[in-house]
Amino acid sequence: MTVNWAVFSPEAGLLLASTSDKANMLVPFYFNNGQVTKLHKFEADICKTAPSLKLQERDVILLKLYDKLYAGILKHPQPNSTEKCLLSLYLLLKDAVVRKVYVLRLGMVGRFAFSVVDNLVVAHHQMSKTSMFFDIKLPGVSKQNVVYLDPLLNPLPIKPFLLKSPASDLTSKTAMTNTVCDLYCATWIVFQPNVIIDAVLGCMWYLKLVLNEMGDMFQDQTVLVDFLLLRKASKSAVLDVCKQAISPLHKIPITQIASIFSKINQRYKDYIDAELAYIEKCETQTETSSIPSRHRDWVVVDQNDLYAQVFFPFSESEEIKSSFKVSVLIEYIKSLHSFKVDIQSFVYELLVTCLVKGGSYFELQQLMLHRVIEDSKEVAALLRSLEDDHPKIDGLALDMYKRMATCDHQVIDILLSKKQVIAAIRFVRSVGMSDLVPARDFLKASMHDDMMFYNVYKFFEARNIRLNGKPEFTAAEVCDEYMLHYVTRFVSDVIQ
């Protein structure tokens, strides 16, 4: 085999050799553990209308994106053509035929260099001194099983860099001078994945993304969230987007806010499913190191993150209308429901607080009636604590406790605190707790009304006869005070 040239990726252990007259027949070789494996060869697309054109080594690059290896082929347009340069990405697999899967539309002509930063393809254009971003995970236009992608943003220059060096003035040993480095110069050499070397200055840089400064560059906030969720260490940037989205200064439609929640919760749900599958495999296998756990590297924004960083400060703002606060929280809850994610009680509690403070009592009742706000001990306790200052929600906590099978004691406590002792006894009978509740609490709550006290006392007296064979209370029940009150108030009157 005659080899024109070859490119090598040390990271993937893969060599791509060029053969044929036009140098566009490429043969991949995979190196692993001292062995060489020849993979399927493939023919790269080049300009067919120029017979003398050959594929150059500088126009071929090996890129690793989302744990997969691609061969990037830069296709130049024919001279005097209105077409622009394209970068075709061919997926390289060990056991499958190599095929073209993506085409990046660069929108310019001339010399390019390429870097990979956080799974983004960054195309550096020397003539315009700008760079473009491409993300193969984001949607594009599909044609004949090939996805065509445009740059995510308008071409942007790399942030200027000041090189500090000792001053030429020999009288000062500590004096430093700042030199502005010439960007996109001809002396640059670009290495994979994100290394740039200036051969003249003798400097090397790593290219990085500053995610928190990219928010204002995207016109569509939902695309921005998609972009950020695919980046590493982007949680703070995602939370910043959420803060801006619900800020009244930005005036984003509630439908777009709902779309942002949907994208965040889709990743949240995927992570939960992946973690559950991982735990299940770990329980059934003795060797867990071979079980993939890449999902643990994902950026996941869960309910705790949004509550602490976004929703709670948002709910405390006096500049935001209560109705808007409620709408945002309901959209978030609806999104969690749609993905069948269990909702933490503090999310419901925040919604209840916003409804009550805004005086939306009827809406609160409807949301509870239709189970938008799920029953929980925490929410019921919050409703009970708010009843004194907001009488119109009186009874909502009691109704919620009654619907939960494990909250009988809370129902009894509420009824007794409201001096509804007879109602409490009826409830005790209905749930089969007549022989279990302490008589002291009921007798104490009925002391304000003689007739009620008498009836309650007779109820527990009958219980004592049934359980103990005598009407008196045992010493363990600590009811001497109420026995004396009964004798003094009722038995003495009969003797007289």
Explain this structure.
The chain is α+β, with helices and mostly antiparallel strands and 496 residues long. The chain folds into three domains: 5-149, Beta Barrel (Lipocalin), CATH 2.40.128; 216-282 and 293-427, no CATH class; 428-496, no CATH class. It is 37% helix and 20% strand. It contains 14 helices and 19 strands. The strands form five sheets. It has a six-stranded mixed beta sheet, with no helix packed on it. Helix 1 (221-229) runs antiparallel to helix 2 and helix 8 runs antiparallel to helix 9. It is elongated, with a radius of gyration of 36 Å. The model has no long low-confidence stretch (mean pLDDT 89). Residues 231-474 form the Mic1 domain.
- State Rg: 36 Å
Mean pLDDT, all residues: 89
Q: List the strand order in the largest sheet.
A: 6-7-8-9-14-13
Gross morphology is elongated
**Structural class, from secondary structure content?**
alpha+beta
Largest sheet, in brief, is: 6 strands, mixed
Strand content: 15-25%
The count of β-strands is 19
What oligomeric state best describes the polypeptide chains here?
Answer: single chain
How many independent structural domains? 3
CA(first)-CA(last) distance: 125 Å
Helical percentage: 25-40%
Quickly count the helices. 14
Could you list the spans in which at least 5 consecutive residues all have pLDDT below 50? none
